[in-house]
Design goal:
Length: 113
């Protein structure tokens, strides 16, 4: 059948998609547009988080939790966002990142309002 991609090509394209790094902006766009519970969106978030965790150092792990909070805010889940920020605040405190701890507390205060 002309005009239709071969099954082999489709498999390669799917493989390339799974290999590509998932951008935070894409995750946020999907969550805002469809919601966290839409088919495929939660899986996208989980894949993004796993990718990020694989390459995170201590400070990066704190930033990862802040980014996860952004995803929850985009989804309208304030409680989920606050839980991520609490994790980030705890990590920042344990790592003696006082400036980052203060920033996280300010973000939390804005969400709790």
């Amino acid at each position: 059948m002309e005009g239709q991609p071969k099954l082999e090509q489709l498999g390669q394209e799917a493989k390339q998609e799974s290999v590509k790094e998932i951008e935070l902006a894409r995750v946020l766009d999907e969550v805002r547009a469809k919601g966290l519970e839409a088919p495929g969106v939660r899986e996208l978030v989980v894949r993004w988080k796993i990718e990020q965790e694989k390459k995170t150092a201590s400070r990066d792990a704190i930033i990862l939790n802040i980014n996860m909070a952004q995803i929850y805010v985009a989804a309208g889940d304030r409680q989920g966002a606050l839980e991520c920020l609490e994790d980030a605040r705890r990590q920042a405190f344990q790592e003696d990142e006082s400036e980052l701890t203060e920033t996280i507390e300010n973000i939390m205060a804005g969400i709790e309002m």
